[in-house]
């Protein structure tokens, strides 16, 4: 029922393995000797303050920025390949700013994203009934949360080995944050996800593992719960107080309301 299961015995091969990944933007080192693995099931959170290199790490993985180091997808090297080939191999990317085609309808946005011969339209219709009802609406007239759903739906239409999802709840109202989180939880039943997320309630709700960056480097890896329960670690690496990680109402850290 789930295609993302690993070998029957022993430690499963990670779906994504990054080792010694480095990248520069405009001469500045933005990713430095980054190593971590994404298990073949569930959600792994990529955490860190603004500007530490989370987005750059994702872009380096798929070759959108020049990089060095090893990136393996299901045990196969992909770090010398062009972005389009990496995407075709089954890496779904949901970018930070959603990037829907605002002058196209919802249906047109989705059709443009279909890569496989048999796109998973039924799964998308089940996960996003609201989008189905709005299929003729211009994507630019949707709310931020609805645009985020379009962006997620585009990635889920294709059969991917892993999804890289960058700050899907950024700037959304708390109620919509919850809806996006539920959708991600549903999506993760069919595909493993590397998730950049600033909302620690969402991280607590969704993530199994956590990778924490600071200054372009990995400063912590381990179970997400262990990190979220450690006030000193959170304060040191994210600069927030512990109640931001406790169960309860979402706390928007420095985000526009
Ligand atoms: N297009 C760019 N031009 C110059 N510097 C950039 C660009 N994109 C990102 N950076 C710099 O790279 C660093 C990492 O940025 P980014 O990966 O976007 O961080 P994060 O996603 O963790 O907020 C920051 O110092 C940022 O200013
Ligand atoms: Mg970012």
TrEMBL record:
SMART domains: AAA. Keywords: Amino-acid transport, ATP-binding, Nucleotide-binding, Transport. GO terms for molecular function: ATP binding; ATP hydrolysis activity; branched-chain amino acid transmembrane transporter activity. It comes from the Bacteria. Signal peptide: none annotated. InterPro entries: AAA+_ATPase (IPR003593), ABC_transporter-like_ATP-bd (IPR003439), ABC_transporter-like_CS (IPR017871), BCAA_Transport_ATP-bd_LivF (IPR052156), P-loop_NTPase (IPR027417). Belongs to the ABC transporter superfamily. This is Branched-chain amino acid transport system ATP-binding protein.
């Amino acid at each position: 029922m789930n295609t993302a299961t690993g070998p029957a015995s022993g430690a499963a091969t990670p779906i994504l393995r990054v080792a010694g990944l480095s990248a520069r933007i405009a001469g500045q080192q933005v990713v430095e000797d980054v190593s971590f693995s994404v298990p073949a099931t569930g959600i792994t959170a990529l955490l860190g303050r603004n500007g530490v290199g989370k987005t750059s790490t994702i872009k380096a993985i798929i070759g959108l920025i020049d990089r060095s180091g090893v990136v393996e997808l299901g045990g196969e090297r992909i770090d010398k390949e062009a972005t389009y080939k990496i995407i075709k191999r089954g890496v779904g990317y949901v970018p930070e700013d959603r990037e829907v085609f605002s002058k196209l309808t919802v249906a047109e946005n989705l059709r443009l994203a279909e890569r496989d011969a048999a796109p998973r339209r039924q799964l998308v219709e089940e996960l996003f009934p609201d989008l189905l009802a709005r299929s003729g609406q211009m994507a630019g007239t949707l709310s931020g949360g609805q645009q985020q759903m379009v962006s997620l739906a585009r990635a889920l239409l294709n059969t991917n080995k892993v999804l890289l999802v960058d700050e899907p709840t950024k700037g959304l109202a708390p109620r919509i944050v919850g809806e996006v989180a539920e959708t991600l939880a549903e999506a993760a039943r069919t595909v493993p996800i590397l998730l950049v997320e600033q909302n620690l309630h969402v991280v607590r709700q969704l993530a199994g593992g956590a990778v924490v960056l600071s200054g372009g480097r990995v400063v912590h890896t381990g179970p997400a719960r262990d990190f979220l329960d450690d006030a000193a670690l959170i304060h040191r690496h994210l600069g927030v107080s512990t109640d931001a990680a406790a169960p309860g109402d979402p706390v928007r850290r420095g985000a526009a309301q």
